[in-house]
Amino acid sequence: MEVTIIQPRFNDAPHFRDFWEKGNGKQLIEFSGAEVNFKDFQKFSPYFYHVDEVGDAVVKDVYFTKKFHEASREIEEYIRNGVSEADPVPQSVKELFTQTQQIPEWLDYHLLKSGAELCMRSNLDSLISLRDYCLIGGYDYAYLNKPLTATEALKKGAVKRLSETLDFWVNATRYDALELHAKGYEFAIKTRLIHSYARLSIKKHYKQWDAENWGEPINSWDMMATYIGFSLVFLHSLQKLGNTFSVEEEKGIFHLWKYVGYLLGIPEPLLPDNKKQATEYFYLWTSMQPPSDKDSILLAHSLLNESLENPILKFKFQRKNLRYLHICCTWFLLDDEVCKRLQVPEVSNRNLFPKAKILFNKIYDQLVSRNARIKRGNKDQMKVLEDYLRITKTSNFH
Protein backbone atom coordinates (compact mmCIF):
# COMPACT_ATOMS: atom_id res chain seq x y z
CA MET A 1 0.00 0.00 0.00
CA GLU A 2 1.43 3.38 -1.04
CA VAL A 3 1.62 5.57 2.03
CA THR A 4 0.29 9.11 1.59
CA ILE A 5 0.90 11.32 4.61
CA ILE A 6 -2.22 13.27 5.51
CA GLN A 7 -3.20 15.21 8.61
CA PRO A 8 -6.56 15.59 10.39
CA ARG A 9 -8.41 18.25 8.41
CA PHE A 10 -11.42 19.23 10.48
CA ASN A 11 -10.32 18.60 14.08
CA ASP A 12 -10.63 22.32 14.89
CA ALA A 13 -13.87 22.83 12.94
CA PRO A 14 -17.06 23.68 14.89
CA HIS A 15 -19.00 20.65 13.62
CA PHE A 16 -16.27 18.25 14.79
CA ARG A 17 -15.83 19.91 18.20
CA ASP A 18 -19.58 20.20 18.83
CA PHE A 19 -20.13 16.52 18.06
CA TRP A 20 -17.30 15.25 20.29
CA GLU A 21 -17.52 17.83 23.08
CA LYS A 22 -21.29 18.36 23.40
CA GLY A 23 -23.22 15.97 21.16
CA ASN A 24 -23.52 12.28 20.34
CA GLY A 25 -19.73 11.98 20.14
CA LYS A 26 -19.47 13.00 23.80
CA GLN A 27 -22.15 10.41 24.62
CA LEU A 28 -20.23 7.74 22.66
CA ILE A 29 -17.08 8.48 24.70
CA GLU A 30 -19.08 8.15 27.94
CA PHE A 31 -20.83 5.02 26.63
CA SER A 32 -17.58 3.31 25.62
CA GLY A 33 -14.88 4.65 27.96
CA ALA A 34 -12.85 5.63 24.88
CA GLU A 35 -9.68 7.71 25.12
CA VAL A 36 -9.76 9.88 22.02
CA ASN A 37 -6.64 11.52 20.61
CA PHE A 38 -4.66 11.65 17.37
CA LYS A 39 -1.64 9.53 18.31
CA ASP A 40 -2.76 6.67 16.00
CA PHE A 41 -3.89 8.91 13.15
CA GLN A 42 -0.99 8.00 10.82
CA LYS A 43 -1.70 4.30 11.38
CA PHE A 44 -5.23 4.69 9.97
CA SER A 45 -4.99 7.57 7.49
CA PRO A 46 -3.35 5.57 4.63
CA TYR A 47 -6.59 3.56 4.38
CA PHE A 48 -8.23 6.72 2.96
CA TYR A 49 -6.47 5.78 -0.29
CA HIS A 50 -6.71 1.99 0.12
CA VAL A 51 -9.28 -0.16 -1.70
CA ASP A 52 -10.27 -3.83 -2.05
CA GLU A 53 -7.99 -4.76 -4.94
CA VAL A 54 -9.08 -8.42 -4.87
CA GLY A 55 -12.74 -7.46 -5.38
CA ASP A 56 -11.76 -5.02 -8.13
CA ALA A 57 -9.80 -7.74 -9.96
CA VAL A 58 -12.82 -10.10 -9.86
CA VAL A 59 -15.05 -7.39 -11.34
CA LYS A 60 -12.55 -6.77 -14.15
CA ASP A 61 -12.19 -10.50 -14.87
CA VAL A 62 -15.85 -11.51 -14.58
CA TYR A 63 -18.25 -8.55 -14.82
CA PHE A 64 -16.33 -6.57 -17.43
CA THR A 65 -15.88 -9.56 -19.75
CA LYS A 66 -19.55 -10.59 -20.17
CA LYS A 67 -23.13 -9.43 -19.76
CA PHE A 68 -24.01 -8.32 -16.24
CA HIS A 69 -26.68 -10.99 -15.62
CA GLU A 70 -24.30 -13.73 -16.87
CA ALA A 71 -21.53 -12.49 -14.57
CA SER A 72 -23.95 -12.36 -11.62
CA ARG A 73 -25.08 -15.93 -12.27
CA GLU A 74 -21.46 -17.09 -12.45
CA ILE A 75 -20.60 -15.42 -9.13
CA GLU A 76 -23.69 -16.96 -7.50
CA GLU A 77 -22.46 -20.41 -8.58
CA TYR A 78 -19.09 -19.76 -6.95
CA ILE A 79 -20.73 -18.49 -3.74
CA ARG A 80 -23.09 -21.45 -3.41
CA ASN A 81 -20.73 -24.24 -4.45
CA GLY A 82 -17.35 -22.89 -3.34
CA VAL A 83 -14.13 -22.54 -5.33
CA SER A 84 -11.08 -24.78 -5.07
CA GLU A 85 -7.51 -24.26 -6.27
CA ALA A 86 -8.10 -26.81 -9.04
CA ASP A 87 -11.18 -25.08 -10.52
CA PRO A 88 -10.77 -23.52 -14.00
CA VAL A 89 -11.63 -19.98 -12.87
CA PRO A 90 -9.71 -16.67 -13.02
CA GLN A 91 -6.93 -16.28 -10.47
CA SER A 92 -8.71 -13.28 -8.93
CA VAL A 93 -11.78 -15.46 -8.22
CA LYS A 94 -9.55 -18.06 -6.52
CA GLU A 95 -7.96 -15.33 -4.42
CA LEU A 96 -11.33 -13.90 -3.34
CA PHE A 97 -12.77 -17.26 -2.35
CA THR A 98 -9.56 -18.51 -0.73
CA GLN A 99 -9.90 -15.55 1.64
CA THR A 100 -13.66 -15.74 2.25
CA GLN A 101 -13.75 -19.55 2.60
CA GLN A 102 -10.92 -19.39 5.14
CA ILE A 103 -12.54 -19.18 8.58
CA PRO A 104 -10.42 -16.77 10.66
CA GLU A 105 -8.96 -18.19 13.88
CA TRP A 106 -10.67 -15.51 15.94
CA LEU A 107 -14.21 -16.37 14.79
CA ASP A 108 -16.53 -17.33 17.65
CA TYR A 109 -19.88 -18.79 16.51
CA HIS A 110 -21.40 -18.32 19.97
CA LEU A 111 -20.74 -14.56 19.76
CA LEU A 112 -22.20 -14.43 16.22
CA LYS A 113 -25.37 -15.99 17.66
CA SER A 114 -25.53 -13.46 20.52
CA GLY A 115 -25.13 -10.56 18.08
CA ALA A 116 -27.85 -11.91 15.80
CA GLU A 117 -30.17 -12.40 18.77
CA LEU A 118 -29.80 -8.77 19.88
CA CYS A 119 -30.58 -7.59 16.33
CA MET A 120 -33.74 -9.72 16.29
CA ARG A 121 -34.74 -9.10 19.91
CA SER A 122 -34.73 -5.33 19.42
CA ASN A 123 -37.48 -5.76 16.82
CA LEU A 124 -38.57 -2.54 15.07
CA ASP A 125 -36.20 -0.47 17.25
CA SER A 126 -33.41 -2.07 15.22
CA LEU A 127 -34.95 -0.73 12.01
CA ILE A 128 -35.63 2.70 13.54
CA SER A 129 -31.97 2.83 14.68
CA LEU A 130 -30.63 1.88 11.26
CA ARG A 131 -32.79 4.41 9.46
CA ASP A 132 -33.16 7.38 11.81
CA TYR A 133 -29.66 7.39 13.36
CA CYS A 134 -27.16 5.29 11.39
CA LEU A 135 -28.29 6.02 7.82
CA ILE A 136 -29.45 9.63 8.03
CA GLY A 137 -26.66 10.49 10.50
CA GLY A 138 -24.15 9.20 7.95
CA TYR A 139 -25.44 11.75 5.44
CA ASP A 140 -23.91 14.51 7.59
CA TYR A 141 -20.43 13.38 6.48
CA ALA A 142 -20.14 15.07 3.09
CA TYR A 143 -17.17 13.15 1.64
CA LEU A 144 -18.59 9.77 2.68
CA ASN A 145 -21.60 10.42 0.43
CA LYS A 146 -19.69 11.35 -2.71
CA PRO A 147 -19.91 7.81 -4.22
CA LEU A 148 -23.73 7.98 -3.85
CA THR A 149 -23.73 11.27 -5.76
CA ALA A 150 -21.31 9.96 -8.39
CA THR A 151 -23.39 6.83 -9.04
CA GLU A 152 -26.60 8.93 -9.13
CA ALA A 153 -28.15 6.98 -6.25
CA LEU A 154 -30.79 9.69 -5.82
CA LYS A 155 -32.31 8.73 -9.17
CA LYS A 156 -32.85 5.20 -7.87
CA GLY A 157 -34.96 6.61 -5.03
CA ALA A 158 -34.94 6.10 -1.27
CA VAL A 159 -37.47 3.24 -1.32
CA LYS A 160 -35.17 1.07 -3.43
CA ARG A 161 -32.05 2.09 -1.49
CA LEU A 162 -33.73 1.36 1.84
CA SER A 163 -35.00 -1.98 0.54
CA GLU A 164 -31.45 -3.01 -0.46
CA THR A 165 -29.96 -1.96 2.90
CA LEU A 166 -32.73 -3.78 4.78
CA ASP A 167 -32.29 -6.91 2.64
CA PHE A 168 -28.57 -6.99 3.41
CA TRP A 169 -28.95 -6.23 7.15
CA VAL A 170 -31.75 -8.72 7.81
CA ASN A 171 -30.02 -11.51 5.91
CA ALA A 172 -26.70 -10.90 7.68
CA THR A 173 -28.24 -10.93 11.17
CA ARG A 174 -30.22 -14.21 11.33
CA TYR A 175 -29.13 -17.48 12.94
CA ASP A 176 -26.25 -19.16 11.02
CA ALA A 177 -26.55 -16.50 8.29
CA LEU A 178 -22.77 -16.17 7.92
CA GLU A 179 -21.98 -19.87 7.53
CA LEU A 180 -20.14 -20.58 4.26
CA HIS A 181 -22.60 -20.54 1.31
CA ALA A 182 -25.50 -19.32 3.56
CA LYS A 183 -27.63 -16.27 2.75
CA GLY A 184 -25.70 -13.70 4.81
CA TYR A 185 -22.37 -14.94 3.42
CA GLU A 186 -23.82 -14.61 -0.09
CA PHE A 187 -24.98 -11.04 0.60
CA ALA A 188 -21.54 -10.08 1.93
CA ILE A 189 -19.73 -11.35 -1.20
CA LYS A 190 -22.25 -9.74 -3.56
CA THR A 191 -22.09 -6.43 -1.66
CA ARG A 192 -18.30 -6.53 -1.83
CA LEU A 193 -18.41 -6.91 -5.62
CA ILE A 194 -21.09 -4.20 -5.98
CA HIS A 195 -18.70 -1.85 -4.14
CA SER A 196 -15.88 -2.79 -6.51
CA TYR A 197 -18.12 -2.41 -9.56
CA ALA A 198 -19.26 1.04 -8.37
CA ARG A 199 -15.69 2.12 -7.55
CA LEU A 200 -14.32 1.11 -10.97
CA SER A 201 -17.28 2.77 -12.72
CA ILE A 202 -16.73 6.00 -10.77
CA LYS A 203 -13.03 6.03 -11.62
CA LYS A 204 -13.81 5.44 -15.30
CA HIS A 205 -16.79 7.73 -15.83
CA TYR A 206 -16.85 10.38 -13.08
CA LYS A 207 -14.08 12.76 -14.07
CA GLN A 208 -14.81 15.21 -11.22
CA TRP A 209 -13.75 12.69 -8.56
CA ASP A 210 -11.42 14.56 -6.15
CA ALA A 211 -9.29 11.71 -4.78
CA GLU A 212 -6.97 14.00 -2.83
CA ASN A 213 -9.81 15.37 -0.69
CA TRP A 214 -12.39 12.60 -0.84
CA GLY A 215 -10.04 9.61 -0.77
CA GLU A 216 -10.47 6.72 -3.20
CA PRO A 217 -14.12 5.94 -3.99
CA ILE A 218 -15.52 3.53 -1.36
CA ASN A 219 -12.11 3.37 0.33
CA SER A 220 -11.28 1.06 3.24
CA TRP A 221 -11.41 3.81 5.88
CA ASP A 222 -14.90 4.88 4.78
CA MET A 223 -15.94 1.22 4.80
CA MET A 224 -14.74 0.96 8.41
CA ALA A 225 -16.88 3.96 9.37
CA THR A 226 -19.93 2.50 7.64
CA TYR A 227 -19.62 -0.77 9.57
CA ILE A 228 -19.03 1.07 12.85
CA GLY A 229 -22.47 2.50 12.06
CA PHE A 230 -23.91 -1.03 12.15
CA SER A 231 -22.23 -1.82 15.49
CA LEU A 232 -21.31 1.13 17.75
CA VAL A 233 -23.87 3.67 16.48
CA PHE A 234 -26.57 1.00 16.30
CA LEU A 235 -25.96 -0.01 19.94
CA HIS A 236 -25.96 3.61 21.08
CA SER A 237 -29.29 4.15 19.34
CA LEU A 238 -30.85 1.06 20.94
CA GLN A 239 -29.72 2.34 24.34
CA LYS A 240 -31.24 5.78 23.64
CA LEU A 241 -34.56 4.10 22.84
CA GLY A 242 -34.58 2.36 26.23
CA ASN A 243 -33.29 -1.06 25.20
CA THR A 244 -30.91 -2.97 27.47
CA PHE A 245 -28.37 -5.55 26.33
CA SER A 246 -25.99 -7.93 28.06
CA VAL A 247 -22.18 -7.82 27.87
CA GLU A 248 -22.39 -10.97 25.75
CA GLU A 249 -24.85 -9.39 23.28
CA GLU A 250 -22.71 -6.26 23.03
CA LYS A 251 -19.60 -8.33 22.25
CA GLY A 252 -21.72 -10.30 19.80
CA ILE A 253 -22.72 -7.24 17.77
CA PHE A 254 -19.08 -6.19 17.32
CA HIS A 255 -18.05 -9.74 16.51
CA LEU A 256 -20.80 -10.19 13.93
CA TRP A 257 -19.89 -6.99 12.08
CA LYS A 258 -16.18 -7.72 12.38
CA TYR A 259 -16.79 -10.97 10.49
CA VAL A 260 -19.05 -9.28 7.91
CA GLY A 261 -16.29 -6.68 7.46
CA TYR A 262 -13.74 -9.47 6.98
CA LEU A 263 -15.93 -11.04 4.25
CA LEU A 264 -16.30 -7.62 2.62
CA GLY A 265 -12.53 -7.27 2.33
CA ILE A 266 -12.10 -4.53 4.95
CA PRO A 267 -8.52 -4.87 6.31
CA GLU A 268 -8.51 -6.52 9.75
CA PRO A 269 -6.67 -3.65 11.55
CA LEU A 270 -9.76 -1.51 10.81
CA LEU A 271 -12.27 -3.91 12.39
CA PRO A 272 -12.91 -3.01 16.06
CA ASP A 273 -13.54 -5.69 18.70
CA ASN A 274 -15.47 -3.50 21.14
CA LYS A 275 -17.13 -0.12 21.69
CA LYS A 276 -13.96 1.50 23.11
CA GLN A 277 -11.91 0.66 20.02
CA ALA A 278 -14.80 1.55 17.69
CA THR A 279 -15.22 5.02 19.25
CA GLU A 280 -11.46 5.71 19.07
CA TYR A 281 -11.35 4.59 15.40
CA PHE A 282 -14.45 6.63 14.56
CA TYR A 283 -13.00 9.76 16.19
CA LEU A 284 -9.98 9.67 13.87
CA TRP A 285 -12.11 9.10 10.77
CA THR A 286 -14.53 11.96 11.53
CA SER A 287 -11.62 14.41 11.60
CA MET A 288 -11.38 13.91 7.81
CA GLN A 289 -15.04 14.64 7.11
CA PRO A 290 -16.59 18.08 6.50
CA PRO A 291 -20.21 18.66 7.55
CA SER A 292 -23.30 18.31 5.34
CA ASP A 293 -23.33 19.86 1.88
CA LYS A 294 -26.17 20.24 -0.64
CA ASP A 295 -25.88 16.55 -1.66
CA SER A 296 -26.24 15.53 2.00
CA ILE A 297 -29.45 17.54 2.29
CA LEU A 298 -30.88 15.97 -0.90
CA LEU A 299 -30.09 12.47 0.40
CA ALA A 300 -31.59 13.22 3.82
CA HIS A 301 -34.79 14.64 2.34
CA SER A 302 -35.10 11.73 -0.05
CA LEU A 303 -34.99 9.38 2.98
CA LEU A 304 -37.37 11.53 5.06
CA ASN A 305 -39.92 11.59 2.22
CA GLU A 306 -39.58 7.86 1.53
CA SER A 307 -42.65 7.15 3.68
CA LEU A 308 -44.78 9.38 1.42
CA GLU A 309 -43.64 7.61 -1.77
CA ASN A 310 -43.81 4.10 -0.38
CA PRO A 311 -47.06 2.29 -1.31
CA ILE A 312 -46.76 -0.31 1.51
CA LEU A 313 -49.21 1.80 3.52
CA LYS A 314 -52.44 2.24 1.58
CA PHE A 315 -53.71 5.61 2.77
CA LYS A 316 -52.06 9.02 2.52
CA PHE A 317 -52.74 9.90 6.20
CA GLN A 318 -50.90 6.68 7.26
CA ARG A 319 -47.87 7.63 5.19
CA LYS A 320 -47.83 11.19 6.54
CA ASN A 321 -48.07 9.85 10.07
CA LEU A 322 -45.17 7.40 9.49
CA ARG A 323 -43.04 10.24 8.10
CA TYR A 324 -43.85 12.31 11.20
CA LEU A 325 -42.80 9.45 13.53
CA HIS A 326 -39.48 8.99 11.67
CA ILE A 327 -38.82 12.75 11.87
CA CYS A 328 -39.51 12.63 15.64
CA CYS A 329 -37.02 9.75 16.04
CA THR A 330 -34.41 11.55 13.90
CA TRP A 331 -34.58 14.67 16.11
CA PHE A 332 -34.46 12.49 19.23
CA LEU A 333 -31.51 10.33 18.13
CA LEU A 334 -29.31 12.86 16.30
CA ASP A 335 -27.75 16.10 17.55
CA ASP A 336 -29.88 19.20 16.93
CA GLU A 337 -26.98 20.75 14.96
CA VAL A 338 -26.89 17.75 12.62
CA CYS A 339 -30.68 17.89 12.10
CA LYS A 340 -30.46 21.61 11.33
CA ARG A 341 -27.60 21.08 8.86
CA LEU A 342 -29.59 18.36 7.10
CA GLN A 343 -32.67 20.64 7.20
CA VAL A 344 -34.80 18.05 8.96
CA PRO A 345 -38.26 19.68 9.32
CA GLU A 346 -39.36 20.97 12.72
CA VAL A 347 -42.41 19.11 14.05
CA SER A 348 -44.59 19.56 17.13
CA ASN A 349 -44.39 17.26 20.18
CA ARG A 350 -41.36 15.58 18.69
CA ASN A 351 -40.27 13.84 21.91
CA LEU A 352 -43.66 12.25 22.58
CA PHE A 353 -43.22 9.13 20.43
CA PRO A 354 -39.56 8.38 21.41
CA LYS A 355 -40.39 8.84 25.13
CA ALA A 356 -43.41 6.54 24.79
CA LYS A 357 -41.13 4.01 23.06
CA ILE A 358 -38.68 4.09 26.00
CA LEU A 359 -41.51 3.51 28.48
CA PHE A 360 -42.94 0.68 26.37
CA ASN A 361 -39.50 -0.99 26.10
CA LYS A 362 -39.00 -0.93 29.87
CA ILE A 363 -42.37 -2.60 30.47
CA TYR A 364 -42.02 -5.04 27.55
CA ASP A 365 -38.57 -6.03 28.81
CA GLN A 366 -39.99 -7.09 32.17
CA LEU A 367 -43.12 -8.85 30.92
CA VAL A 368 -41.90 -10.83 27.91
CA SER A 369 -39.16 -13.49 27.91
CA ARG A 370 -35.97 -13.02 25.90
CA ASN A 371 -36.72 -16.00 23.62
CA ALA A 372 -40.25 -14.75 22.91
CA ARG A 373 -38.87 -11.31 22.04
CA ILE A 374 -36.28 -12.85 19.67
CA LYS A 375 -39.00 -14.87 17.86
CA ARG A 376 -41.36 -11.92 17.65
CA GLY A 377 -38.60 -9.55 16.49
CA ASN A 378 -37.47 -11.94 13.77
CA LYS A 379 -41.05 -12.35 12.55
CA ASP A 380 -41.75 -8.58 12.50
CA GLN A 381 -38.46 -7.71 10.78
CA MET A 382 -39.00 -10.38 8.12
CA LYS A 383 -42.50 -8.98 7.50
CA VAL A 384 -41.11 -5.45 6.95
CA LEU A 385 -38.48 -6.86 4.56
CA GLU A 386 -41.07 -8.89 2.63
CA ASP A 387 -43.22 -5.76 2.22
CA TYR A 388 -40.27 -3.76 0.87
CA LEU A 389 -39.18 -6.53 -1.51
CA ARG A 390 -42.73 -6.97 -2.78
CA ILE A 391 -43.00 -3.24 -3.53
CA THR A 392 -39.59 -2.81 -5.17
CA LYS A 393 -39.79 -5.98 -7.26
CA THR A 394 -43.34 -5.54 -8.56
CA SER A 395 -43.63 -1.79 -8.98
CA ASN A 396 -41.93 0.82 -11.15
CA PHE A 397 -39.29 1.75 -8.57
CA HIS A 398 -35.98 2.03 -10.44
Quick summary:
The chain has 398 residues and is mainly α.
Class inferred from helices and paired strands: mainly alpha
H-E order: HHHHHHHHHHHHHHHHHHHHHH
SS elements, strand count: 0
> Can you tell me the residue ranges where pLDDT is under 50 for at least 5 consecutive residues?
none
- Choose one word for the global shape: globular
Protein name: ER-bound oxygenase mpaB/mpaB'/Rubber oxygenase catalytic domain-containing protein
Organism: Chryseobacterium angstadtii
Domain ER-bound oxygenase mpaB/mpaB'/Rubber oxygenase catalytic: 156-350
InterPro entries: Lcp-like (IPR037473), MPAB/Lcp_cat_dom (IPR018713)
Structure description:
The chain contains 22 helices and no strands. The radius of gyration is 21 Å and the shape is globular. Helix 1 crosses helix 2 (24-32), helix 7 (109-121) crosses helix 15 and helix 11 (158-172) crosses helix 12 (183-205). The protein has 398 residues and is mainly alpha-helical. It has a domain at 33-51 and 111-157 and 209-394. 44% of the residues are buried. 67% of the residues lie in helices and 0% in strands. It holds the Pfam family MPAB_Lcp_cat. GO terms for molecular function: oxidoreductase activity. This is ER-bound oxygenase mpaB/mpaB'/Rubber oxygenase catalytic domain-containing protein.
